[in-house]
């Protein structure tokens, strides 16, 4: 009995498409005009209930159950993402406020304040958002591209403002003059 269980455990999960049961083969053959054969065989053979099914009715029930399980894990992923993205919404709100404050400081000639505000409260926000998503339960960042682009952009803005703090292009010097040099 124990040996039988061991054999079942060892063989069931590893079924490849090439070793599909005849019921699965027949089911997938019937669907060949609408379902790619590899996909059909692969999905069904990988599922224990489907692999052990002895009639099409059991294969169909297994197919619905597989789908329910997968939809459920997508639902969980969406819940995790919703939670983590709402954290990002907080980060980015703070970032936009800091950039507005930084811009006001910059326009008023308070370059150091502008730079501090941007560096301390804005430069790492896109990165922090992205990291929180990758470290979260969903382990992925659906706005990865936006985070990367915005991270590059805020670094650029911070570095340009920093030129004024270091007085490399700031004060009386005009950018056009530098370009003409
Ligand atoms: C199912 O089809 C595959 C080829 O697609 C074949 O290798 C396999 O023996 C078939 N299984 C049964 C039980 O007929
Ligand atoms: C559906 O699949 C899950 C996971 O494979 C399994 O635990 C459960 O018993 C299945 N439910 C039915 C009704 O077959
Ligand atoms: C989906 O997952 C929840 C737990 O996250 C569980 O309570 C529920 O039974 C699952 N539904 C299905 C169809 O597996
Ligand atoms: C960063 O933002 C906080 C408010 O969230 C503010 O108190 C602080 O002064 C800001 N830091 C700098 C350097 O402006
Ligand atoms: C920043 O993110 C916004 C949307 O979140 C996107 O439209 C924009 O292209 C991103 N990158 C840059 C460089 O603005």
Name the features.
enzyme inhibitor activity, Methane Monooxygenase Hydroxylase, Chain G, domain 1, 2 domains, binds 2-acetamido-2-deoxy-beta-D-glucopyranose, disordered C terminus, Pectinesterase_inhib_dom, 181 residues, single chain, mainly alpha, rod-shaped, disulfide bond
Explain this structure:
- Helix 2 runs antiparallel to helix 3, helix 5 runs antiparallel to helix 6 and helix 5 packs antiparallel against helix 7.
- With 181 residues, the chain is mainly α.
- The radius of gyration is 29 Å and the shape is rod-shaped.
- It has two domains: 61 residues, no CATH class; 92 residues, Methane Monooxygenase Hydroxylase, Chain G, domain 1 (Up-down Bundle).
- It contains nine helices and no strands.
- Bound molecules: 2-acetamido-2-deoxy-beta-D-glucopyranose (NAG) (5 copies).
In N-to-C order, the SSE pattern is HHHHHHHHH
Label the CATH architecture of the largest domain: Up-down Bundle
Structure classification = mainly alpha
Q: Report the span from N to C terminus.
A: 89 Å
Number of domains: 2
Q: Shape, please?
A: rod-shaped
CATH fold-level topology of the largest domain: Methane Monooxygenase Hydroxylase, Chain G, domain 1
Low-confidence runs (pLDDT<50, min 5 residues)? 1-17, 175-181
Mean pLDDT: 87
Query: How many helical stretches?
Result: 9
Radius of gyration: 29 Å
User: How many beta-strand segments?
Assistant: 0
Helix content: over 70%
Give the biggest beta sheet.
none
In the CATH scheme, the class of the largest domain would be Mainly Alpha
Protein name: Pectinesterase inhibitor domain-containing protein
Domain Pectinesterase inhibitor: 23-114
GO molecular function, one term: enzyme inhibitor activity
Family: Belongs to the PMEI family.
